[in-house]
Amino acid sequence: MNFQRGRGREEPEINLIPMIDVLLVIIIFLMLTTTYSKFAGLEINLPTADVNQQNEQPNEIDVAVTAGGQVLVNKSPLATTDVNAISAALQQAAGGRNDPVIVINADAKATHQRVVDVMQAAQSAGYPHISFATQSAQ
User: Fold this and answer.
1) What span, in angstroms and rounded, lies between the C-alpha atoms of 64 and 106?
2) 84-95, pLDDT tens digit by residue?
3) Is the pLDDT of residue 52 over 70?
4) Which of 13, 15, 21, 86 is an S-S bond match for 121, by CB 3.0 to 4.6 Å?
């Protein structure tokens, strides 16, 4: 029995407003619960050398930095390790040589600050050529 003869069949509708509301709530929830993290460090791969050790050049000044932070210029230890003392020791070790190459032999456990101090001392002494000694990867 069909009691509604006069009425035609209505097309079914999909109401989009409730679906949009639900999607907006989901987007807001995801935005509030997502954590954004900034990476403060850089990923650095330190180099190793496969080259055979070359003969020592006469125009080189060896600077060694120990794990304890002691600085040695041409195998003679310095009393103080501030930049001015290292710079004076570099100038004394250079003597009359023009533009020597500073070779830094830093222990793997030496602080970066001490190595940067040696580099700054070489720059203040007027020696722009700096090289780092490495050991072969075996």
Assistant:
1) 6
2) 999 999 999 988
3) no
4) 86
